[in-house]
Each structure stands twice: as structure tokens, then as C-alpha cells.
């Protein structure tokens, strides 16, 4: 059957080759998508809006940069921090709680809270004989995940239930809205919860929710969190305590270089994948191999309407040069020099209102390659058709082999039967002759 199996083996080998080609095209697709992602910030100019932020007093707060912003120094004056509402319950009626697991007389089957304007119910008793205690109320509230943290605190022989909003600020404060023997005074004292009440001490240990109150360069700001994201563009400020400090933003050349290097690395990955395809599975696929040519054509074309002698019209004039092996290389010093010479020209080099910037044209080219009718998807479709053809052929060949094998087995069985009959007859004849 080895000879008969040869066509099937050859078809399987071709299918393996096609699947390898499909994998290679898939890798190219991924690297082109990564290049497209790297181009996004370049075309908009956001890659240049990278700053480093410092705070004058680390004990007052911390800063981190996001995106956007502008250089400058900002005076921050914090009047008060944002706080979350906290209620402390330390009595049943007028009696202190000495056993957190003891049943609470008159406790309801459920209690309801309002958090962020939404009413949510916590079931305390699923069955009539379930015990409702300080500890079970604590556990049920925490398990409900409704934006309220509960904790049981021991002070000597006395136990207290402390409820607090997970998030700070007025918008995140909770309110008790339902449950037998449950009420909300709206303040720090006078509330009840499932027959639990507050002593005068518990009232002083409770607190109202509040927003952070601060000014930035004299402009008043109210924030529901101590992580303030809207006070200074491009900066998140973590407030630690009331007081004054300054936040300074300055250009981050290392951050800009990182953004540019991400583009260079993504471009070089595409070139590397094209080269691997050229020497491997897609050696004869001209359309795939043309990817490098199309990208290099973009590199060779200056920004329309820009004088390459007196301005910056090529990437190489901003420190991004084409190497002999087809890859790009970033010269950070040359880029910094170009920025000092004419920052707006560098911005225009990557993206502009006429959509003739390098990042914009690269993006247009890559979009075409990744389009459903582009080189990547059409190549995938062609290869998948070849794989499907081989799969159908293999099914047909296997069916023929199975039929041939069954036929040979039947012939072999019949031959064995004939040989056995002949051997039996020969033995009988031999015995007959021997007996005479």
C-alpha cells in the first residue's frame, strides 16, 4: 500500500506547506496591526505631549502624568480631603455588645441601602431559624459587594460594627433606606440598623462624606476623590493631607523618544517578518513581498509642499533614517536638534491638516494592506482555498485507499481459505497413500 498512499502523503505535505504560509501571513498581519497602533499617537502629535511631573513636597501628595498637558508650575492649596461616610453601631437598644455572634433581638430578614442613587438589598436571614448577629450582618454586607465596607471592631470587651463607603465623596455616600428597626438620620448619630443603635461615642466616631476642596492657581475645585484628575491637564494628583504644595510639568524627552522608538521597532518588525517570508514559506508570493516596497516608497516621498532644504520634509531630517538592511534607526540627538530648530515642522512631518504627514501616509498604506480586500486578507483567502482543496482531495484519496485495503483483505482471506483447503486435501491424499 506504500505506493498507493503516495498521492495522499504528497497532498498532506502540500497542506502542511499551505498552513505554514497561513501562519506566516497571520504573523505579518499582527506586526502590521502593531505598526498601525504605534502610528496613532504620531499622526495626532500626541507623542510630543509627554511631560514629567514633580511635586514640591512629597508628604503632601504625589503626581503622575497621563496625556496632554503643557509645561508650567501649578500652586495647589488643599483645604480638606475627600472623605467617605462612616457609621458606627455599638449597641442593641441601650446595651453594649459583648458577643459579636450573639443573636440580635428584633433583627429583620433584610436591610436596604442606597449607594450612588441605587437601592440595593442585603439578605440577613434566608431561613426562619438563621441567626442574625453583629458578625453575620458584617459578613452579609461585605459579601453583597454594594459599595459598602463593613468591619467588626473590638474595644476591650465591647464590639462595634463600622460601615463605610468604599469610595469617598458626596456622590458615593451610602444611606440606610429600609429594614425593620433601621433608619438613617442623615448625620453621624441617631441612625439604627437592624436593631443596632449608636451611643454618643459611636456618633463621634462616625463621620459625614465630603468632597476634597482645593484651589489650583487660585481656581476653586471640588473633587469626590483624593485622586484628582481634572485639576491640571495631563496630570493625576494624589492628595495626602490639607496644605499647600506646587506641581511642576516639564517636557519629557525620554518619553518622546520611547514613543518614537515604539514606531521604529514596529516598523522594523514588519520588515523582519517580510524578510522571513521572502526566504521561507512565502518565497514566491509577490504581493506579500511588495509590502516592504510600499512602505519604503512612503519613506522616499517628502511631505507635500514642504521645502526639504529650508525645512523638515523627510524623517531622516528628524533623526529617523533608513538603514542598508531596510530597517529604521532613531538618532535621539538628531531628533532633539530638529525639535529645537522647528518644533512645528516636526509635528507637521508626522501629521498635518492635509493628511500628508509620514504617520498619516503610513497609516493609510497599512489600512489598505489590512483591508478585507487588501493583500493580507486576500492572501489568507487564497491559501485557505488551497488548504480546503487539499482536505477534500485527502478525503477522496483516503476513501479510495480504504476501499482498496478492504478489497485486498477480502482477496487475502479468500486465498488463505483456498490454501487451507488445498493443504487439507493434500494431507488426506498423503494419508490414503500411506495406508496402502
UniProtKB/TrEMBL annotation:
Limits of the Flagellar hook-associated protein 2 C-terminal domain: 209-424
Gene Ontology biological process terms from the UniProt entry: bacterial-type flagellum-dependent cell motility; cell adhesion
Any Pfam family matching the protein: FliD_C
Keywords: Bacterial flagellum, Cell projection, Cilium, Coiled coil, Flagellum, Secreted
GO cellular component, one term: bacterial-type flagellum filament cap
Domain Flagellar hook-associated protein 2 N-terminal: 1-84
Region called Disordered, residue ranges: 180-199
Location of the protein in the cell: Secreted; Bacterial flagellum
Matches recorded under InterPro entries: FliD (IPR040026), FliD_C (IPR010809), FliD_N (IPR003481)
Function recorded in the entry: Required for morphogenesis and for the elongation of the flagellar filament by facilitating polymerization of the flagellin monomers at the tip of growing filament. Forms a capping structure, which prevents flagellin subunits (transported through the central channel of the flagellum) from leaking out without polymerization at the distal end.
Subunit structure: Homopentamer.
Family: Belongs to the FliD family.
Name this polypeptide is given: Flagellar hook-associated protein 2
Species of provenance: Chromobacterium violaceum
Amino acid at each position: 500500500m506504500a505506493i498507493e498512499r503516495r498521492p495522499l502523503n504528497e497532498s498532506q505535505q502540500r497542506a502542511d506547506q499551505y498552513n505554514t504560509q497561513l501562519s506566516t501571513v497571520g504573523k505579518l498581519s499582527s506586526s502590521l496591526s502593531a505598526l498601525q497602533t504605534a502610528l496613532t499617537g504620531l499622526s495626532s502629535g500626541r507623542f510630543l505631549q509627554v511631560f514629567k511631573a514633580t511635586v514640591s513636597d512629597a508628604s503632601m501628595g504625589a503626581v503622575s502624568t497621563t496625556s496632554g498637558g503643557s509645561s508650567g508650575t501649578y500652586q495647589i492649596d488643599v483645604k480638606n480631603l475627600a472623605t467617605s461616610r462612616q457609621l458606627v453601631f455599638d449597641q442593641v437598644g441601650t446595651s453594649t455588645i459583648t458577643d459579636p455572634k450573639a443573636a440580635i433581638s428584633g433583627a429583620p430578614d433584610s436591610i436596604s441601602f442606597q449607594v450612588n442613587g441605587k437601592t440595593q438589598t442585603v439578605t440577613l436571614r434566608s431561613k426562619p431559624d438563621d441567626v442574625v448577629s453583629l458578625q453575620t450582618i458584617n459578613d452579609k454586607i461585605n459579601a453583597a459587594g454594594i459599595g459598602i465596607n463593613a468591619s467588626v471592631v473590638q474595644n476591650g470587651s465591647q464590639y462595634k460594627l463600622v460601615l463605610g463607603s468604599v469610595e469617598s465623596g458626596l456622590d458615593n455616600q451610602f444611606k440606610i433606606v429600609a429594614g425593620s428597626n433601621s433608619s438613617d438620620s442623615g448625620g453621624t448619630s441617631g441612625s439604627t440598623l437592624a436593631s443596632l443603635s449608636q451611643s454618643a461615642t459611636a456618633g463621634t466616631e462616625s463621620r459625614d462624606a465630603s468632597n476634597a476642596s482645593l484651589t489650583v492657581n487660585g481656581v476653586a475645585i471640588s473633587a469626590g476623590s483624593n485622586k484628582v484628575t481634572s485639576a491640571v491637564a495631563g496630570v493625576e494628583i494624589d492628595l495626602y493631607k490639607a496644605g499647600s504644595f506646587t506641581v511642576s510639568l516639564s517636557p519629557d524627552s525620554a518619553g518622546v523618544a520611547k514613543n518614537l522608538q515604539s514606531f521604529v521597532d514596529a516598523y522594523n518588525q514588519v520588515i523582519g517578518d517580510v524578510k522571513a517570508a521572502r526566504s521561507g514559506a512565502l518565497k514566491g508570493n509577490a504581493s506579500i513581498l511588495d509590502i516592504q516596497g510600499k512602505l519604503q516608497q512612503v519613506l522616499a516621498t517628502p511631505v507635500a509642499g514642504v521645502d526639504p532644504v529650508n525645512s523638515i520634509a523627510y524623517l531622516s531630517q528628524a533623526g529617523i533614517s533608513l538603514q542598508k538592511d531596510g530597517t529604521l534607526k532613531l538618532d535621539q540627538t538628531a531628533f532633539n536638534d530638529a525639535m529645537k530648530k522647528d518644533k512645528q515642522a516636526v509635528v507637521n512631518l508626522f501629521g498635518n491638516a492635509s493628511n500628508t504627514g509620514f504617520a498619516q501616509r503610513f497609516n493609510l498604506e497599512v489600512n489598505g494592506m489590512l483591508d478585507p480586500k487588501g493583500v493580507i486578507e486576500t492572501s489568507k483567502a487564497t491559501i485557505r482555498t488551497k488548504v480546503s482543496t487539499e482536505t477534500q482531495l485527502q478525503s477522496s484519496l483516503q476513501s479510495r485507499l480504504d476501499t482498496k485495503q478492504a478489497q485486498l483483505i477480502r482477496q487475502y482471506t479468500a486465498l488463505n481459505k483456498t490454501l487451507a483447503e488445498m493443504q487439507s486435501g493434500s494431507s488426506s491424499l498423503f494419508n490414503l497413500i500411506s495406508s496402502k
